[in-house]
Amino acid sequence: MSTETAATVGRPARTPAAALRPARTVARWAVRHGLPGVLLERGARQGDLVGRLLRDRAARDEPYALYEELRARGPVSPGSIGLVTPSHAVASGILRSDRFGVGWDRSAAPRLIRWALRFGDEPDATGVAEPPSMLVVDPPDHTRFRRLVSRAFTPRATAAFEPAVQRTADALLDALELRGGHVDLIETYAAQLPVLVIADLLGVPTERREDFLRWGAAAAATLDPGLSFRRYLTAERALRAMHGFLREHFARLRREPGDDLVSLLVGLPDDEALTERELHATVMLLLGAGFETTVNLLGNAVVLLDAHRDQWDALVADPSGWDGAVEEVLRHDSPVQITGRTAKEGVTLAGRGVRPGTRVTVLLGAANRDPDVFADPARFDIGRANAREHLAFSAGIHYCVGAGLARLEGVIGLRTLAERFPVLRVSGRPVRRDLQTLRGFEHLPVTLR
Ligand code: HEM
């Protein structure tokens, strides 16, 4: 006699892997977000400034006063999770030092955590803040990945994108001309320009851009420590959808390669070939980093220049100032506020002994307002001579691969916007994204004319 019941007839049989999936998700969330969340929360209650920065929405929206409180405690101070630095000199030293890495030694973690990491590991749920993403692996793997993608971002290759960036900006602004006076500038322009440019570069169909934007927004949250389970689930669904898309995309390019970077990566000779997992990690990072950051640069720039109207007017009158303006926006309100490194060996930081395995939170947004480097750092000044000394693109071996492209998109995107709509004004309250690592706007209402 059959053991099937009415309830199971017709339902596809669950594989053992699928049956374990919910437990894996919980394990992954617990080690990557649940536990850090508890530590940060406890720290925040006890007055720890990093805890407050990462858990308190108001501090996250306006972190600069808190950075100054931290600076008053010295160039390096203890936080909920290791040490923290708001200092430009210390941050720059750490980022350029081979005594610090982005990876961490799992073998030193408690047994339960090691087990949860192993059990929770699932390629299709892996985000850009997890290995083998280039962002979080040390040499020699980092060197191998970086060498492959750098080919597409040499200064010459970047300069060659210029006509495409200009064409894309023009087309988006043509559409805005028709939309009338009042729009959300993030939705209609700042988010669209970078996603269209990177989609072109990676040979992914631009018709899918709304999917990428939705997935990217959800996945960007995984850069932040301490996500709630609910937000983590949303992010994980987006990651699975992105991996599914990438799988199909790679298969298509293997059949019909184009002259884009991804075709090059899927067609590498055996001695250079990336594993499937490495390929997913690399392309997902390029796609996500390609638009999740530059949108913030564009939005932050418009808000700052609206608040400093004389500087906007000066740029409208003399567009040669845009290069400097973009550097000052990157410095003053950095799209990536936070990164971190782990000491690989015992080191001394600003006179303090640091044990191997110690995590240091590097506050890029605070380093970029260090008065030892930038005079009157809270002042927004597009003519600032040394704005380019900022660490908004990091430094050392993980220095942003796409910095040249981001600058190009920033300058062309903003210059063209100002040329078309010189009287543009912010016309409602801009809404910040609910993110910690990335800083930018979710909505930016403007009147164009
Ligand atoms: C304003 C825009 C951008 C900002 C502020 C920015 C910022 C950063 C920062 C701070 C890092 C290093 C993080 C660390 O050291 O831990 C980084 C790495 C990276 N960025 Fe960007 N980025 C931007 C645009 C782009 C674009 C357009 C791409 C295009 C593909 C891109 C691709 C990457 C990649 C692949 C890495 C990893 C590099 C490595 O680990 O060696 N970024 N970015």
Largest sheet: 5 strands, mixed
User: Quick one: how many beta strands?
Assistant: 12
**What is the strand arrangement across the widest sheet?**
1-2-8-5-3
Query: How large is the share of residues in beta strands?
Result: 5-15%
Gap from first CA to last CA: 76 Å
**What overall geometry do the principal axes of the alpha carbons give?**
globular
Compute the number of structural domains.
Answer: 1
Please give the oligomerization state of what you see: single chain
Low-confidence stretches: 1-9
What Rg do the Cα atoms give? 23 Å
The CATH class assignment is Mainly Alpha
Q: Look up the CATH topology.
A: Cytochrome p450
CATH homologous superfamily descriptor:
Cytochrome P450
Number of alpha- plus pi-helical segments: 20
Q: Output mean pLDDT.
A: 93
Question: From the 3D coordinates, which CATH architecture would you assign?
Answer: Orthogonal Bundle
The helix-and-strand class reads: alpha+beta
Share in helix: 40-55%
Structure ligands: protoporphyrin IX containing FE
Structural topology:
Layout: H1 16-45, H2 49-55, H3 57-61, H4 64-72, E1 77-78, E2 83-85, H5 88-96, E3 100-101, H6 111-120, H7 141-150, H8 155-160, H9 162-179, E4 182-184, H10 185-190, H11 192-202, H12 209-220, H13 229-255, H14 261-266, H15 276-292, H16 294-307, H17 309-317, H18 322-332, E5 338-343, E6 347-349, E7 352-354, E8 359-363, H19 364-367, H20 403-420, E9 425-426, E10 431-432, E11 441-443, E12 445-447
Parallel strand pairs: 2-8
Antiparallel strand pairs: 1-2, 3-5, 4-12, 5-8, 6-7, 9-12, 10-11
Helix pairs in contact: 1-2, 1-6, 1-13, 9-11, 9-20, 11-15, 12-13, 12-15, 16-18, 16-20, 18-20
The chain binds protoporphyrin IX containing FE (HEM).
Protoporphyrin IX containing FE (HEM) binds next to helix 15, helix 16 and helix 20.
